Amino acid sequence: MTYSRIAGTGGYLPERVLTNAELERLVDTSDAWIRERTGIAERRVAAPGEGTTDLAERAARRALEAADVAPESVDLIVVGTTTPDRIYPSTACRLQARLGAFGCPAFDVQAVCTGFVYALGVADKFVRAGSARRALVVGADRHSHLLDWSDRGTCVLFGDGAGAVVLERSDEPGIVSTHLHADGRYEDLLYVEGGTPIGNGRLSEGNAYTQMRGNEVFRVAVRTLMRIVDETLSANGLAKSDVDWLIPHQANIRIIEATARKLEMPMERVVVTVDHHGNTSAASVPLALDVAVRDGRIKRGDRLLLEAFGGGFTWGSALVRY
Ligand code: UT7
Question: Is 113 in the pocket of ligand 1 (CB under 6 A)?
């Protein structure tokens, strides 16, 4: 059998740190509220002129370096992002041009915060099917661009960043299984206006901000992530205790803790970055993975459960033997 395995990971955060104290000066909020309700202490925001492709390139180069492979040897590029620099060409094509991996297929996957897990699932299937030998899979978002900085319900939550993995063909898994889902009926709970409008209008300006009914999203997220944990374990005939590390989407510490409780997993086995990164959307899972690989917590052979939930709604998981 042919599988894919993670050969290297990389991550990148913009330099600029935005603290809760600074947000207190922008909107009617407090450091105490943000920490208590979300677990976030600070987040990073991209510099003016620093786009999603820039973030993606930094993370991608670090992943390629960790895997010790040349960028030109990549034969598939999949980028999970909801904040492309341009409507087209895709971020993946722009990234390919930077890396010089000309000719290979390159495309974006738009699944909001589940973008990386979707991208990983797609790339894994390319490798399993024999259509690619070495895939670069990126989650990158510059969500700060989509925030209304006068809306305290959203502007305190998000941050910018990128994470990446290099997938390689292998005789053993690797990516053991991926589980991808969506339910488009929930569009009104989490969306951004804009795009190419239906009718005769031009591209909308001025209202392309994240709109979220946070409390309702929260409740569906907790329920859904609990279900996907069960689905992933039972698809592989595993018990909760067989998972070494939970690498969850970093939206809110209370959602992460609820999923960990469901897995009966102590928080020491859960990778948490939401405190310093905020919600980096598609970047959150690969960034968390990269942090824990680089600080030595995650070791070769460990069994990882990656999961994410986001606008769409979309949600998904991956069981990985690192
Ligand atoms: O990654 C994609 C998926 N996204 C998520 O998973 C996000 C899910 N949602 C959440 O994380 C939480 O719902 C939030 C952090 C967004 C909000 O926390 P909450 O505990 O659900 O608060 P709430 O929306 O029920 O609001 C409680 C109160 C409200 O005031 P009143 O009506 O009780 O007077 C809000 O207006 O907190 C108020 N509030 C704030 N207060 C201070 C909302 N945002 C803030 C704020 N600072 N930044």
Answer: yes
Q: Which two tokens stand for residue 311?
A: 């606008």
At residue 193, the pLDDT reads 87
pLDDT score of 199? 65
Count, residues in the chain: 322
Common-topology check for domains 3-171 and 177-321: yes
In 3D space, the residue among 320, 173, 302, 139 whose CA is nearest the CA of residue 232 turns out to be 320
Residue 210 in contact with ligand 1 by CB distance below 6 A? no
How does pLDDT run across 253-286, given as a tens digit for each residue?
A: 999 999 999 999 999 999 999 999 999 999 999 9
CA of 15 to the centre of ligand 1 (A): 27
Task: Specify the pTM.
Answer: 0.97
Q: Is the pLDDT of residue 202 over 70?
A: no
40 in Cβ contact with 273 (< 8 Å): no
CATH 3.40.47.10 at 177-321, yes or no:
yes
Residue-wise pLDDT tens digits, 162-199: 999 999 999 999 999 999 999 999 999 999 988 776 66
Best residue among 147, 215, 256 to mutate for probing ligand 1's pocket (most ligand atoms within 8 Å of CB) is 215
CB distance 128 to ligand 1 below 6 Å: no
Domain boundaries, given as residue ranges, for the chain: 3-171, 177-321
Task: Give the Cα separation of 135 and 261 in Å (integer).
Answer: 34
Give the distance (Å) from ligand 1 centre to CA of residue 314: 20
Q: Where are the alpha helices (DSSP H) in 14-90?
A: 20-26, 31-38, 52-67
CATH code linked to domain 3-171: 3.40.47.10
Q: Supply 143's token pair.
A: 């969500």
In whole angstroms, what is the distance from residue 8 CA to residue 185 CA?
37
pLDDT digits (tens, 9 = 90+) for 106-161: 999 999 999 999 999 999 999 999 999 999 999 999 999 999 999 999 999 999 99
- Side chain identity at residue 106, one-letter code: A
HSE toward the beta carbon, residue 19, CA cutoff 13 A: 5
> Which of 93, 113, 181, 252 is the catalytic position?
113
